[in-house]
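Appendix B.2, paired examples.
Example (i):
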Amino acid sequence: MLSNIKNTYGKEYDTYQKYYQKTMQFILIVGLLTALLAFGAAFYFEEFIIEQATTIAEQMQSDSSDQNHESQFMSTFSNNIWIGAVIIICGLIPILGIPVLYALLSFAAVGIIAGYGMIMEYDVLKTMLVSFVPHAVFEIIPILYSVAIGMYVNRNIMSKLFFKHRTSEPLRKMVVQSLIGYLIVVIPVFFVAALIESFVTTRLIDVFL
């Protein structure tokens, strides 16, 4: 059994190097630039950002007041794996780059939140390190991986429909490869991220913030 698991992950790593690695690196760089731009933009839309952030914070506080750690974990985990699946499925839409949009929106949201913290004169660095970084370092991996799988699907769909002279993967191979990546990488790492967010991050917030 262990040898089968090792072989499965070995093949997935080869797939990652061949199809996903460059996409993930590109999205990470572009995402960080997007976060910086969103951070700067937050100061130009200060009133709107404060109003929206206050509304969202009140809604989140209301939603989480009745949740214990276990229910928060289930909610976070189910939401994340659903998002990962949607990102990959969006690759089927024959418009180049659709799966990238969610990743860029996620990075932009981080930049806006950081900008809001600066506007409100919070200790942004401490707040981010305590309430965001512990689970985000795990959460970003399956998000980027989902985007990379989605772009792999997207490029092949585009080639099949509009650029038939280009080489594309058989549909069956594309679906199986995408599903395997989702099951053995995206879901397990989202599971770890949800655990940390629900049981570790919440504790850190209580202690340090």
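Example (ii):
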Amino acid sequence: MSVKSSKTELDAAIAAIEKSLAEVHFESRILLHKAVRSINGQNHQLLRGNEELKQGNEDLKRQIEELKLRNDELKKEVQVLCQKASNKQIQEDWESLQRFKTLLDVPDEDPSPEVDLDYCQKTLEKAFRKGSPNVRSSSSFSRMTLNALEEDEVYNRWMSNSHSSLFVISGRTKPESHDGHNTCSWLSMASIDVAEKLRADGSFTLFYSCHPKLRADDIIPFQAPLSMLIYQALTHRPELLRYENQHLQSLIRQWQKESHDREKLTLMIKTLRECLASATVNPQKPMYIILDRMDLCDGTKALKRHFLRQLLSLVTDDSLNLKLMLVLDSTLWEGLDDLFDDLLDDLRYDAKDRLLGKLGWHQTEQTPRLSSPEWV
């Protein structure tokens, strides 16, 4: 083969390669253009999708804000409705309580003198006022104070007992220590001071005085203090009447129809016990009942004995956490010491501490050992 023919073949090969390269280059440009156009299209779609997402996000934010505002409006509407329902329920509870007040035949006056601590205190201040022309000014008489009571061992045992218990305090009042026109007891201030202290401490405390005025011209039927104590217990939790209405009405009608005082008293104590048990909010904290001048309650010696036994049954009932305090003037309750001893003998050995007494705490004509408040 000659050199010339070899060169011709080489040129042809080079030409073929260049043609192939040109074709590859052309096809590559076409493919690249298509790819760029596709990428641009996808990018455009992504940008448009991003804008749509942004718009959708803004719409969602707006909807969320609208829902929040609507939720707040609904909350306010619910609160208003709940308040209206609560007010309606409170009003209905109050109306039920007033119907029970009528059924129990307790005084319409609210508060009535028998349960008004301020009223009873002012009565005692007036009865034992220093400088009264009918009080012997040359003598000083012992005056009951909370300090004196709190220094008494028996009272402190009653207050510190971890279980229910009954505390009886009794004594005679010297007629010369007060205006002769009244029949108040020098021990009554103890009941008021204790009730005030307990209420100031937030304790569940029921109070009743059988001698709220200067003179006790009328004997008090035992139904009066018990009815008022039942009513006071219900005032602490009037919502109880939503569930106990029929049952309590049935009990009340039973003892209202009862003609025998002994059975009537027993049923009333049962009603009081159930009201106290239902009104209990915290079983760990004791409830307190302060009953002043129970000696003025009407009845035979046998009925008074039964009354005291029934009250004692409240503190020997383990379902209640109750501290009961009775203040009596022993001048009008003959044989109280013997009755107290009989009740104590009747108790089980392990229940002796359920009945505590400070009997014979008579007023003395002497300078008080402890400072006393000046009576206005």
